[in-house]
Design a protein that fits this description.
By secondary structure, the protein is α/β, with parallel strands linked by helices. The protein has a single domain (4-275), classed as Metallo-beta-lactamase, Chain A. It is built from seven helices and 16 strands. It has helices spanning 44-51, 69-72, 75-81, 112-119, 195-206, 225-238, 251-260; strands at 4-10, 25-30, 33-37, 61-63, 86-89, 98-101, 104-107, 126-128, 133-136, 139-141, 158-159, 176-180, 183-188, 211-217, 243-246, 273-275. A seven-stranded mixed sheet has the order 8-5-4-3-2-1-16. A hairpin with a 2-residue loop joins strand 6 (98-101) and strand 7 (104-107). Helix 6 (225-238) packs across helix 7. One of its GO terms (molecular function) is transferase activity. Residues 22-247 form the Metallo-beta-lactamase domain. It comes from Desulfomicrobium norvegicum (strain DSM 1741 / NCIMB 8310) (Desulfovibrio baculatus (strain Norway 4)). It holds the Pfam family Lactamase_B. This is 7,8-dihydropterin-6-yl-methyl-4-(Beta-D-ribofuranosyl)aminobenzene 5'-phosphate synthase.
């Protein structure tokens, strides 16, 4: 098995020497490969890679978990730093996206400058994956995640239009999985498909039932008490080894999971590092 080291590069909270930003980015070192999952909004990534001494030029792949602004804002910077990087994302990432609250519509789509940067890539470096996709030995993408549970939703008032006529289920949401000797490490951007839907799908497509760790945004900030209870119950059945909630999970949800799960729950932040070679 390959050694895997994960470093949170962008998060709503930050450790010493790093910047915080509403967004998420995760640096993945898996064997000889280097993958960046998401880019944050676009301000914190450049500062944090310098502080953490991460060389984006070594990135083999950039994976976009979905098409929201707080995960895709630094795409041009990444493409400039890593001129040979391959990009993987669902074809829906460039759709118009809006969050509507209190009668006000907020544009949350991928920034136009990021879309233009993707459009300049040659076809051999741009991969639009709707289904599961292998990235290398023991590492891959979920593709579209079926919505099986009746207690999970996309986590917000999301629409394709500013008038709230077309609901957006965020079907472009996907997760990255890594196979280790102790089970899967699951990396998520916002988990709009739902954490339990995501883990169920990954167990099915990989044939691995053990979940070693989950890291990333879980989008439970506005989750009902019932959803939190059902999520915790399902997680206790799945018995993950570690949970590292980040970004959009919500402080209340993190506290609830910490109180109701058997596994450790460590809040993620910019600069957080997980080394699978460590016990």
């Amino acid at each position: 098995m390959h050694k895997t080291v994960l470093t949170v590069l962008v998060d709503n909270q930050a450790g010493f020497g790093c910047l915080a930003e509403h967004g998420f980015a995760l640096w993945i070192e898996h064997g000889d490969g280097r993958i960046l999952l998401d880019t944050g909004q676009g301000t914190a990534l450049a500062e944090n890679v310098r502080a953490l001494e991460i060389d984006l030029g070594r990135a083999d792949a950039l994976v976009l978990s979905h098409g929201h602004y707080d995960h895709t804002g630094a795409v041009p910077m990444v493409l400039g730093a890593a001129p040979k990087v391959r990009v993987y994302c669902h074809s829906g990432v460039t759709e118009p996206r809006y969050s509507i609250s209190g009668g006000e519509a907020r544009d949350i789509r991928m920034p136009m400058f990021s879309m233009r940067a993707l459009a300049t890539l040659p076809p051999e470096r741009m991969f639009w994956n709707g289904g599961a996709q292998l990235l290398g030995d023991g590492i891959g993408l979920s593709g579209f995640i079926p919505r099986w549970t009746d207690f999970e939703d996309a986590g917000g008032p999301f629409y394709f239009d500013p008038h709230g006529l077309r609901s957006d289920p965020v079907d472009d949401d996907q997760a990255l999985w890594i196979s280790t000797e102790k089970g899967l490490i699951v990396c998520v951007g916002c988990c709009h498909a739902g954490l339990i839907n995501t883990l169920t799908h990954l167990r099915e497509i990989t044939g691995e039932s053990r979940i070693r760790a989950v890291i990333g945004g879980l989008h439970l900030g506005s989750a009902s008490r019932e959803r939190l209870e059902m999520t915790a119950r399902a997680l206790r059945d799945m018995q993950p080894g570690l949970l590292v909630p980040c970004h959009c999970t919500g402080e209340g949800a993190i506290a609830y999971l910490r109180d109701h799960l058997d596994c450790p729950v460590h809040t993620g932040y910019s600069g957080f590092r997980l080394d699978t070679s460590e016990p």
